[in-house]
């Protein structure tokens, strides 16, 4: 790839798991009451028709991986499990009231357990949480239940318990197999562990096993990356996440440390890891899905891309869209389509608020009419690699015509009167293409670092 293009487009940029992105939420225009109103509205409009998605954040990890940008709490104390689960169930009761007020029972379509490390919790405690939850909902005819497992502490019993409760998809954090990298990110994780959990999940009957890989970690070279990809391919995961390492040490609580900036591959060097990696994956039968993801042909993520059903939310890509996504637990983000809300980011603040009988939301954003239009454009770009707008909305995008022309001249998109298609070369710059539509960022350029670098 052209080095000039790489340096031109290697600016900081959001990953667009939401629009507006979190730093552009207008908190002053947001209140808990409005949040509940938009949830009630979405319940009425969509629960019976398409069901809802639930995300449950299980934040504990026994050890800090020093590359990790997730919201987590490091502890070896397993006595925190039960009180945390009880708080999550209390929080759920607060949302259940909104369903009851609207004479509805939640129809559960998607459920994802994320973290942190869901498999930090014992199988018994996970079963308790889920059985309590399931006693309050109707489970959809075609549910999609998934969870994130840490290969080092996912047991056969975890896999069997969750499978019996309806989980059919699991993703394991692999990151990288190289011992020097594992040392630098404080995450020693032998191949044999990943092999064990992958085979056990298959044996039990999981229909999709996914591995998370990250490129651009400290000391990463193509040699190391290739080894990791080849080991991964030996296990044939149905899906793969292939994330660009996001270096965001300024985010509080992230704890990225243990290596220095100069240990990180950057610019063209980092891009090569992605490009070579992509070639190797494609050679061996994987298809790139939107941004960051690859899947084998039989996997539902591939099928939903083919059938234009792909959707993107805070968890990344999903194969089904629900209008309402409720996030439970510390730092979880919810999306009522008309608004976003995020929960308190520390376990203590989260628990305190719920104990007070309040939704533990600490910030959020109500989408304006313009936000909703831009959001749809960005979703189209991220999920379908093309978008178009109607005559009425065209006004909104007149001001970005010059930027779109430039993207076209650089060979990243094909532009028409009322839309665009991302080219093969453009795929690697999809965040830059989405940024052209980001009205809020265009109006107020970030003065400090808010996002990770695009490359
Ligand atoms: C699995 C854990 C999570 C991933 N994303 C989120 C969680 C809980 C949600 C999230 N993470 C960040 C934010 C920004 C706002 C904030 O609370 O500070 C949110 C909503 C921080 C963050 N995480 C990543 C980055 C790059 C940032 C900063 C914002 C940005 O640059 O966009 C990296 C990252 N987090 C997750 C993945 C898969 C990932 C990188 C590929 C998962
Ligand atoms: C949930 C998944 O998110 C990925 N993940 C966590 N932190 C980062 C980061 N800083 N950059 C890129 N990917 C990250 C890991 O691959 C993890 O398994
Ligand atoms: S990568 Fe997973 S186990 Fe490691 S700190 Fe992050 S959430 Fe915890």
UniProtKB/TrEMBL annotation:
Its EC number is 1.3.98.3. It catalyses: coproporphyrinogen III + 2 S-adenosyl-L-methionine = protoporphyrinogen IX + 2 5'-deoxyadenosine + 2 L-methionine + 2 CO2. The gene is hemN. One of its GO terms (biological process) is protoporphyrinogen IX biosynthetic process. This is Coproporphyrinogen-III oxidase. Binds 1 [4Fe-4S] cluster. The cluster is coordinated with 3 cysteines and an exchangeable S-adenosyl-L-methionine. Its cofactor is [4Fe-4S] cluster. S-adenosyl-L-methionine 1 binds at residues 55, 115, 148, 333. NCBIfam families: hemN. GO terms for cellular component: cytoplasm. It is found in: Cytoplasm. S-adenosyl-L-methionine 2 binds at residues 67-69, 116-117, 175, 187, 212, 246. Pathway: Porphyrin-containing compound metabolism; protoporphyrin-IX biosynthesis; protoporphyrinogen-IX from coproporphyrinogen-III (AdoMet route): step 1/1. Keywords: 4Fe-4S, Cytoplasm, Iron, Iron-sulfur, Metal-binding, Oxidoreductase, Porphyrin biosynthesis, S-adenosyl-L-methionine. Involved in the heme biosynthesis. Catalyzes the anaerobic oxidative decarboxylation of propionate groups of rings A and B of coproporphyrinogen III to yield the vinyl groups in protoporphyrinogen IX. The keyword Secreted does not apply. Residues 46-283 form the Radical SAM core domain. Belongs to the anaerobic coproporphyrinogen-III oxidase family. [4Fe-4S] cluster binds at residues 61, 65, 68. InterPro entries: Coprogen_oxidase_HemN, Coproporphyrinogen-III_oxidase, Elp3/MiaA/NifB-like_rSAM, rSAM, rSAM_horseshoe, rSAM_sf.
